[in-house]
Specification:
Blueprint lengths: L1 H25 L12 E3 L4 E4 L7 E7 L3 E5 L4 E4 L9 E8 L8 E9 L6 E7 L5 E4 L10 E9 L3 E5 L4 E3 L3 E2 L5 E8 L7 E9 L2 E9 L4 E3 L6 E3 L6 E4 L1 E3 L3 E5 L4 E5 L5 E5 L2 E3 L3 E9 L9 E8 L4 E4 L3 E2 L6 E5 L6 E8 L3 E12 L4 E7 L5 E7 L6 E5 L6 E3 L8 E12 L2 E13 L6 E5 L3 E2 L10 E8 L7 E12 L2
Parallel strand pairs: 2-8, 18-26
Antiparallel strand pairs: 1-3, 3-6, 4-7, 5-6, 7-8, 9-10, 10-14, 11-13, 11-15, 12-14, 15-16, 17-20, 19-23, 21-25, 22-23, 24-41, 25-26, 27-30, 28-29, 29-41, 30-40, 31-36, 31-41, 32-33, 32-40, 33-34, 34-35, 36-37, 37-38, 37-39
Organism: Bacteroides caccae
InterPro entries: BACON (IPR024361), Ig-like_fold (IPR013783)
Protein name: BACON domain-containing protein
């Protein structure tokens, strides 16, 4: 019994092994078709999408047999359209075009697979194109407040919002049945400046805006593009129109621009000096005369662009961003100068420097010389005429010395050539002032005695200035950067 049982067991094992080997041979990687074909998807049977900017529909398809998906409409495209050779499982994206028609439309996606008789379908319904027509307000609201109407016509549900609390609406949303809807807007009283509110109307991806305006205190500049004054001129005048229904005052925040209220209710703005090597700005402000109105100033920014000039000898380097000019001189000659070439009579001249570096006997030179006289020269530094101011003309031909200072610390220079007193135009004088690094006030370094005013006309004062380096020792470097030069003509 024991031998028979053992033999029987061996035979059974042999049969099992043989069956297993045959199974391995028959069910290899290419034998999937032997299993029942399956096709599954997590797609919904129906989808609804918007007419404008429809969202992409995404679902999955899983199968053990090749499959494909087809759309019966060109405006609805599934991707991928079939399974790949490497995978029978895929994520499908369905992209829809915007609906250009005012009727809804439908596309059907059909999913089929090899050796599966029944297909799966997905229905996509796209909404009709929305119609959103808005007719805005005809007139501004009065300052005392009141009502006005506007209309909305839409075939879709809509909503409207106001950007400001002073304007309220009797309807803020509607169903959108294609009929025109009239909405009443109510404005609160306005005790301030003219104001605006924006109404935004939204309907299923469509959006439009209308503006409501309410009259109030009007104080503003008329639109203008004429805001640039010529730096090469003084007493250039521009006129700016003012729109106002209250009494007003005008001011300027810059000394170079004088503003006045004209008889016709506008503004005349006049430049008071010339400017070179820079562009400067001024703000013109309108304010109500009645300060209790609590109205903020209305402003207009204008500018004065640097005037033209000529260079002599070694050219300067110009900073394109600021207009500042830098002169560098290493010879023993006066080769580094600029000229304005404009006749002067009496004037105040101001220079501002961002940097001066000189060594040895280099000096700065200013010159206002008529042909042949009168005129004046000024040497700041050592050299042939160290720290000397020379007046030439009439019975006077005198030199005036100033106390030497560190030229490398010079930040501003002013030469004032004016009448001794405003009411006596027979006598004149010249004063020279400086500001060194860290100083805020002018320090006077030269004052000439009063002299007979020989500059009877503008031309008789010569062409000022030439300004730059003079003398010095070859090989010894001098550098100067002028950030601005201003001229205020006295007469």
């Amino acid at each position: 019994m024991k031998k028979l049982s053992f033999y029987t067991i061996l035979c059974c094992l042999a049969v099992v092994c043989t069956f297993s080997l045959n199974s391995c041979q028959e069910f290899n990687i290419d034998s999937q078709a032997e299993f029942p074909p399956l096709l599954e998807t997590d797609a919904q049977s129906e989808y609804a999408v918007l007419a404008k900017s429809p969202n992409t529909i995404i679902f999955n398809i899983s199968s053990n047999t090749p499959w494909k998906i087809e759309s019966n409409k060109n405006w609805c495209v599934p991707t991928p359209a079939m399974s790949s050779a490497s995978s029978l499982i895929a994520e499908v994206s369905v992209i829809m075009e915007e609906n250009p028609d005012e009727q809804e439309r439908t596309a059907i996606l059909t999913i089929t697979a090899d050796r599966i008789k029944e297909s799966k379908t997905v229905t996509i319904t796209q909404a009709a194109k929305g119609t959103l027509l808005v007719q805005g307000f005809d007139d501004p609201f009065p300052s005392e407040g009141g009502e006005a109407t506007f209309t909305i016509t839409s075939n879709k549900a809509w909503k409207v919002t106001s950007s400001n609390q002073w304007l309220t609406l009797d309807k803020e949303e509607g169903e959108g049945n294609g009929e025109k809807v009239t909405i009443t807007a109510t404005a609160k009283p306005n005790t301030g400046l003219k104001r605006t509110a924006t109404l935004t109307i939204v309907s299923e991806g469509y959006e439009t805006e209308i503006t409501a305006t309410q009259n109030g205190i009007m104080l503003e500049f008329a639109e203008t593009t004429d805001v640039t004054f010529d730096g090469g001129q003084d007493k250039e005048t521009k006129t700016y129109q003012v729109l106002a229904n209250v009494d007003w005052q005008v001011s300027s925040d810059a000394t170079w621009l004088k503003v006045e209220k004209s008889i016709d209710g506008n503004i005349t703005a006049t430049s008071q000096s010339e400017i070179y090597f820079t562009t400067r700005k001024a703000v013109i402000s309108l304010t109500p005369t009645d300060k209790t109105l609590g109205i903020e100033a209305t402003t207009l920014e204008v500018r004065q662009a640097g005037g033209s000039y000529e260079l002599n000898g070694t050219p300067g380097t110009i900073d394109e961003a600021t207009g500042a000019i830098t002169f560098t001189e290493e010879t023993g000659n006066a080769n580094c100068r600029y000229y304005i070439n404009k006749p002067r009579k009496l004037a105040i001249h101001k220079w501002h420097f961002s940097n001066i570096e000189v060594d040895d006997n280099r000096c700065l030179n200013m010159n206002c010389v008529a042909s042949p006289i009168p005129g004046w020269n000024f040497w700041l530094g050592v050299g042939a005429n160290p720290w000397t101011f020379k007046y030439r003309g009439g019975s006077s031909n005198d030199d005036y010395k100033c106390t030497p200072f560190d030229l490398n610390k010079l930040k501003a220079l002013k030469v004032s050539h004016t009448y001794s007193t405003p009411d006596n135009k027979t006598k004149a004088k010249i004063e020279v002032f400086i500001k060194l690094e860290g100083e805020t006030d002018w320090t006077q370094i030269i004052t000439t005695p009063e002299y007979e005013n020989l500059f009877e006309t503008t031309g008789s004062a010569g062409n000022f200035p030439y300004f730059g380096f003079i003398a010095g020792t070859a090989g010894k470097k001098g550098t100067m950067t002028i950030t601005s030069y201003e001229v205020t003509n006295i007469e």
